[in-house]
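Below is how a single chain appears once it has passed through the pipeline. First comes the sequence as given, then the structure the pipeline wrote out for it. We keep one example in the README because the format questions we get most often are answered faster by looking than by reading.
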Amino acid sequence: SKGNEQESQNKLKRMMVIMDSMTKAELDSQEGGKLFNRQQSRAQRVARGSGSSIKEVNELLLTYTNFAKVVKKMGGVKGLFRDGDMSKNVNPSRMAQLNQSM
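Resulting structure:
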């Protein structure tokens, strides 16, 4: 429905604003959320820079961590896009799992 679509777009925009407040090193880090867990001042700085709360920053990091776990279980990004079509490489139950993690 239109309401759900608008809500999803707004959530995505918020995530992008939060990520825009992260440094390149933070975005590219293999450690993901662990980096922020070890240094809470990072989450505070990102929250201030993005006009969001520390809770929103932590929720984004948790979403990313969960998404990364699901993608890894599915054979990684290369496994998802093998032959150029993700729908051929992911069964419906796995796709539902992927959608839930986001």
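The chain has a mean pLDDT of 82.

See the next section for the split statistics.
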